[in-house]
Amino acid sequence: MFSNKHNNLINLIKDSQSLKFIDVESNKIYYLNDMLFDLDTMDLPRSLGFLYLDTSLISLKVYLTFLNSPHALVLLSDSIDLKLKENLEDSYLPTFIIDSKRAKIPKYTTDKITGNASIIDLHINTSYTTKLHENIKILLSTSGTTGSPKLVKLSEDNILKNALSICEYLPIATTDVTPLNLPLHYSYGLSVLHSNAISGTTIVCGLPDILNKDFWNYLEEHKFTSIAGVPFIYEMLKRIGFMKKSYPSLKYITQAGGNLSQNIKMEFYEYCNDNAIEFFVMYGQTEATARISYVPPADLKNKITSIGKPIKNGKITIDDKTGELLYSGPNVFGGYANEIENLACWEDIVHLRTGDLADKDEHGFYYIKGRLKRIVKVFGNRINLDEIEAYLKSRLNMSLLACTGIDDKILLIAHSNEALNESELKKAIFASYKIQGSAIKFKYFEELPKNKSDKIDYNKIILQYLDN
Amino acid sequence: MTNNDILLKAFVTILEIEASKIDDDLKYQSIAEWDSINHMFLINEIESVFNIEIDSEDILYFKSFKETKVALSKYNVTF
Questions:
Q1: Which positions in chain A touch B60 (Cβ < 8 Å)?
Q2: A122-168 pLDDT, tens digit each
Q3: Is B18 on the interface with A (CB under 8 A)?
Q4: How far apart, in whole angstroms, are the C-alpha atoms of residue A218 and residue A204?
Q5: For A232, how many CA atoms within 13 A lie in the half-sphere containing its CB?
Q6: Which residues in chain B have Cβ-Cβ distances shorter than 8 Å to A216?
Q7: Is the pLDDT of residue B75 over 60?
Q8: Which of A264, A272, A331, A409 is a plausible cystine mate for A162, CB 3.0–4.6 Å?
Q9: Is the ipTM of this complex over 0.85?
Q10: CATH fold of B3-75, please?
Q11: What is the four-CA torsion angle of A458, A460, A462, A466, rounded to 10 degrees?
């Protein structure tokens, strides 16, 4: 379908004649040419850059500009703490940094790049020449806001192929008006941008979040045709009475980023069914660029707990021995980077090991049954329990401590310290892991429950917590 | 405790910040702690401490400490 000159995402985006951007802050329309800064003055060979982004027009301009460059880009939230930013930069020594929150960065000289009526600061240190594997284009953090140095390596081909597969099943049309209501440093948010940009829709940026009245005013004014949300966004939509009203412009809504509880999913299904809105429940991982599978809306009612079927060109298998869901396809990443040296290589991974346990029904629909690794999501925030446990043990200098998760809502800390300062610990966990204090619960045990092999019995901990 | 004290305590409990950091001008999303997730916890806490049920359409008006007090007047919680 596409000739060779279309072998990357930005070329396809450039070919989308109808593509427009609306910035709600300035209430102006922009075309792709207006979005690109002039990088001629930068004169850098392919280098590593850090881009700190939000969902504003300027962030979108920055991202598209550098997507249209040979550089490899680490996409990060601009709202993470300065200290976390500095730690990451010390680990990876990026040659350039764009961060609107900092006027000066030690060891970097500050330059300007200009574009259509805007100028931004570019912080450069040309003595940092990171060795980059030629495949690496985008690097994303799996945790988003915690400043972990663990990055997912993605190629031009990964992002292009995933966007094309998404366009195969979502009813995206050139007349669509798509709000960018998820951050760009998050694989799901980025996939919304990519799939819409190559389809030539109108993309709306600079939006406040859905808890702002203005979001709903803009929805009406610009006639948004879709909304994307993680489970918590759906819970908020329900709480703020989304389903009590109708939105004639909405064509479809999508949900990914974790498991939405079955009752709420069913309520949204009923609402969408009554209002001629297609409801797409989807599954994926950053390691698969974003998307792995989706439930066709017509099947959702009968397959309400399913993660659906694989996207086009993707294949799901289940490991005979472990029951783990394995995914293969052109959107599977090239391995993790934990430190700068890892950027020099690329692993060809045939089977992405998702860490999720799954099975398949007679119609070919997949279902998640549990997790192989000790990873939970607390309000969408992917948390490695062993990592938190190690952090707390070293911070508190105590070994009698165990962490577990309940229903993607609660981080439960079981401990044997009668004098534990819960409030102080909550603050520390929020600062480092962005887990809200109300989502952290403590349970004191005189002795932590163990199983026969003398390992911590996490199930017993949860049961005893729920018993009280 | 006055209603102002009760509300202040609800903010301190949920946001886990010092009471001294909370004044009329404190706005939703102006600090890391007052994010959307804590906003929903805060609404629940306010419902619980004042023993009220906040209508879904009113949630969008709890945009600052001051506006929260204004929005609560509808529920006969006065300041």
A1: 211-213, 216, 240
A2: 999 999 999 999 999 999 998 656 667 899 999 999 999 999 999 99
A3: no
A4: 9
A5: 21
A6: 60
A7: yes
A8: A331
A9: yes
A10: 1.10.1200
A11: 180
Task: Determine the pLDDT at residue A186.
Answer: 94
Position with higher pLDDT, B34 vs A117: B34
Tell me which residue of A147, A170, A218, A146 sits closest to A378, measured CA to CA. Answer: A146
Q: In chain A, which residues have pLDDT < 50?
A: 1-4
| Optimal mutation site among A182, A430, A432, A441, interface B, most CBs of chain B within 10 A | A430
Structure tokens at A322: 């472990």
What is the Cα–Cα distance from A393 to A402, expressed in whole angstroms? Answer: 9
Domains along chain A? 4-370 (3.40.50.12780), 375-467 (3.30.300.30)
Residue recorded with tokens 């915690």: A146
Residue to mutate among A80, A238, A240, with most B CBs inside 10 A, is: A240
| pLDDT of the residue at A144 | 58
At position B15, the amino acid (one-letter code) is L
* Cα dihedral A311/A135/A78/A177 (nearest 10): -40
Task: Report the b/e string of A369-384 with b at 16+ CB within 10 A.
Answer: eebeebbbbbbbbbbb
Mean pLDDT of B51-55: 95
DSSP, res A56: S
Which residues 406-425 on chain A approach chain B with CB closer than 8 angstroms? 423
Residue B73 CB-density burial (10 A; 0-12 exposed, 13-18 middle, 19+ buried): exposed
Check if the beta carbon of residue A120 is closer than 8 Å to that of residue A103: no
